[in-house]
Amino acid sequence: GSGHNLILSADGALWSWGNGEMLGHGDEEDQRQPKKVEAFAGRRVLAVSAGDVHSLALTADGAVWSWGFGASGRLGHGDEQSQLLPKKVEAFADQRVVATSAGTGHSLALTSDGAVWSWGFGVYGLPGHGEDLSNQLLPKKVEALAGRRVIAVSAGGYHSLAITADSAVWSWGWGYSGQQGHGAQPQQRLPRAA
User: Fold this and answer.
1) Does the structure show a pLDDT above 90 at 86?
2) Among 62, 154, 180, 182, which one is most buried in terms of CB atoms within 10 A?
3) What residues pair up with 88 in beta bridges, in sequence order?
4) Are 12 and 45 a contacting pair, CB within 8 Å?
5) Dihedral over alpha carbons 154, 156, 158, 160 (to 10 degrees)
6) Could you tell me if 55 and 66 are in contact, meaning their C-beta atoms sit under 8 angstroms apart?
């Protein structure tokens, strides 16, 4: 992230250090050395992603957890509240998530059925929901990729990428620096093959 780091140890424990508000220890104290995130005691963490000012974790039961700054709905809890401790994203209660990625103001998740879900900052078409540029406070399926099996996702600063099973790369969001790979077109609001 911009001011914090996350690592996983071989036993599935999560460690964090840096800016205290984004570390998941329940306080705002900065950590100059790695410290175990005790909120995950008894759970096996499979993957983590450090966004600009928020974090995501995926546990072995397919649940997504988020914490840090909640502005723009980047945590996916239906509000804009910040979280000092990891909190389960309840919108995925009936889904099994296999990958997550935290960007600057938005987040992505990939479910076991190959669907992409997004939430957070809506400007520039970051969530990939077309003309709906509002902030997404809860995870919402990216319908433009329905019918395609996505195998990987990555949330950038202000754009997103997805790879489908046919090896195609899809991108959406801010594109003024060419980060979408579509040539001169500055803003695609729906996923488009690069």
Assistant:
1) yes
2) 180
3) 65
4) yes
5) -20
6) yes
Cα Rg, the chain, nearest whole Å:
16
Burial of 171 (0-12, 13-18, 19+ CB in 10 A): buried
The beta-strand segments (E) located in 60-149 are 64-68, 83-88, 97-102, 106-111, 116-120, 136-141
Placement of tokens 């969530």 in the chain: 127
**Are the C-beta atoms of residues 192 and 164 closer than 8 Å to each other?**
no
With a cut of 90, say whether residue 5 has pLDDT above it.
Answer: yes
Residue 64 CB contacts under 8 Å (≥ 6 apart), including other chains = 56, 57, 58, 76, 88, 89, 92, 97, 100, 109
Reported as a pLDDT band with limits 50, 70 and 90, residue 191 is: low
Of the candidates 167, 173, 177, the residue with the CA atom closest to the CA atom of residue 192: 173
22-64 pLDDT per residue, tens: 999 999 999 999 999 999 999 999 999 999 999 999 999 999 9
Render pLDDT for 32-41 as a digit per residue (tens, 0 to 9): 999 999 999 9
- Distance (Å, whole) CA 109 – CA 101: 6
Asked whether the beta carbons of 107 and 93 are under 8 A apart, the reply is no
Q: Strands across the sheet with 14-18, in order? A: 4-8, 14-18, 31-36
